[in-house]
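Open question from group meeting: does this chain pack into something compact, or does most of it stay loose? Before anyone orders reagents, we agreed to write out a predicted structure and look at it together. Recording both the input and the output here so the notebook holds the full record.
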Amino acid sequence: MIAERCWAEIELAALRHNARVARRQIGPGAGLLAVIKANGYGHGLTAAATALRDEAQMFGVANLREAMETRAAVPHPVVILGPSLPTEQAAIVEHGFIPSVSSYAEAVQFSRAAGSVPVGINCAIDTGMGRMGFSEAEAAATVRRIAELPRVKIHSVSTHLPAADEDPTYTEEQLRRFRAVLAQVRNEITSDYLVHALCSAGVARFASSAFDVVRAGLMLYGASPDAEFQRQLRPALTWKTRVALLREVAAGSSISYGRTFIAPQPMRVATISAGYADGLPRAVSNRGAAVLVGGQRCPILGRVTMDLTMVDVTAVADVSVGNEVVLMGRQGGEEILATEIAGWASTIAWEIFTGIGSRVARVYG
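Structure tokens returned:
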């Protein structure tokens, strides 16, 4: 059997714990739509869906392919949160998925594709994201027209918060405007439908606006841009690699491409079996990034390369080739979170999780 050189250990119980944190935060009046797109944020879509089947009422994905994979794992309603291509509409209707539409014309196409069973539709309203959805001014009239189509049922009305983790003043104003649009929609349409707006940052900071459902994504995997809320979560993924080589280098030795690091004194350097092809961002190079070896933070030296990265293990006793190295997660009394790696790389935790490569084995426990 070949030992893994780079792998991710995923604790499924942590996903369930984080889902329960979300449910406590929003209270008993709202349901949970678990967002498992992008291969469950890199944790494995099927594994995430199966782990959360008793915690979530619905699942959210980006496209038809992900919806099909979700349906193979769980029987729950599946909302396709992104736009659907015309060639996908018949299959979406056939399998009973819930598409999100941004125009009356899209809804007409779904109505034509539907058979005897009406297709449920999520009506997206653009209140500031600028990515998809009806304009606020046209939302009420457009939703009413869609509700009048044959073989169409309004499943939900939703919006997306672009700055819930960065701009609370704007987000409060955005939610106020969304409530105003909802009042118009409810005046036009009296049938039952769900309302949802909150992403993970919204759950953490604006739980009073949970409406009927919240779309929890990042927080389910144990990460939050809000440090206070982070303490309630359990990171589900520990990302590991191994020491592949140990070398003593002299003062003045250069490390990695571009010679961006020159050893200031004699050092013991470990070459570890992970690089940017595994998802360790090259952008963390020379940015104070570290990994954990023997329960200690060990600085990354020079540039991250495709398959290998060099780290300073001078201060760590008893390092051997084959030892485990933690790229993300806990080892001993130290922990590196996805948000910390994101900070080194000048990006976001979402990109760190989804960037973990396909050759990184996922091990579930």
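Observations to bring back to the group:
DSSP finds twelve helices and 20 strands in the chain.
Residues 81 and 326 are 34 Å apart (CA to CA).
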